[in-house]
Amino acid sequence: MTIIAPSILSADFSQLGAEIQSIEKAGADWVHIDVMDGHFVPNLTFGPPVIQAVRSTTKLPFDVHLMIERPELSLHDYIAAGADRITIHLEACSHLHRTIYSIKEKGLPVGVALNPATPVSLLAPVLEDIDMVLIMTVNPGFGGQSFIPYSVTKLKELRSMLEARSLSHVDVQVDGGINAQTAALVREAGANVLVAGNAVFNAPDRAEAISVLR
Ligand SMILES: O=C(CO)[C@@H](O)[C@H](O)COP(=O)(O)O
Fold first, then answer.
1. Pair type for strands 85-89 and 31-36
2. Rounded Cα distance, 70 and 52, in Å
3. Which residue, 5, 111, 128, 212, has fewest beta-carbon neighbours within 10 Å?
4. Residue 183 — very low, low, confident or very high, per pLDDT cuts 50/70/90?
5. Which residues line ligand 1 at a C-beta cut-off of 6 Å?
6. How many other β-carbons are positioned within 10 Å of the β-carbon of residue 95?
7. Which reaction does it catalyse (predicted)?
8. 50, 80 Cβ separation under 8 angstroms
9. Which domains does the chain have, with CATH numbers?
10. Candidate from 138, 139, 146, 173 with most ligand 1 atoms within 8 A of CB, to mutate
């Protein structure tokens, strides 16, 4: 079953609570929250107070993607604000294994994200320790970018690694440039969690857009 996680980066920020309720009504499975710090990526978005403010607007899980330097310094604030699962970037952690376990100790599923130029082989030492891999299919920082085709090769490599190590339960998420066409490609290559910003929030019918992606 494919999980659809609309990214609120493409929502109307002046109506964030209502926008989240709209995607819940439209059939979304998770709410994808892109946290950007202006350092790891060249953009700034939400911090813990905003996440806390919208937490009560929905029962959907908050899938928090930390595009921030040194996530170990603030991840507990995101958990306290209402994150249900946390994804950190391999490139942003000096002690990836330690940071993974800081999240696991709080009882949350952990994802590790890879930028487009980071090879999946770097995940080998931690694959047994995580719940999800996020293959970035654009360079992180902005919505509305075009899907990077080499992502398909990375997804296939990751699926083979997971199968070889009997880790087929690990979720494989993709994020960036996902629409009806690219959704078919990434699902075929092994992704089971699709993040989509523009393809959902800018669609005339959000329920229809989610159902097409699924
Ligand atoms: O994290 C990011 C970008 O850094 C994504 O979540 C985008 O928000 C996806 O937007 P679309 O490419 O689907 O419009």
1. unpaired
2. 21
3. 128
4. very high
5. 7, 9-10, 32, 34, 138, 140-145, 175-178, 195-199
6. 11
7. D-ribulose 5-phosphate = D-xylulose 5-phosphate
8. no
9. 3-213 (3.20.20.70)
10. 138
Q: Report the nearest-CA residue for atom 4 of ligand 1.
A: 140
7-65 pLDDT, tens digit each:
999 999 999 999 999 999 999 999 999 999 999 999 999 999 999 999 999 999 999 99
Residues near 71 by Cβ (< 8 Å), separated by ≥ 6? 86, 88, 89, 92, 93, 99
Q: What is the average per-residue pLDDT within 149-162?
A: 98
For residues 112 and 67, the answer to whether their CB atoms sit within 8 Å is: no
| Å from CA of 73 to ligand 1 middle | 24
Q: Whole-model pTM?
A: 0.98
Using only the alpha carbons of the chain, give its radius of gyration.
Answer: 16
Continuous segment of H or E residues that includes residue 31:
strand 31-36
Which atom of ligand 1 approaches the CA of 179 most closely?
13
Kindly state the average pLDDT of the residues 143-172. Answer: 98
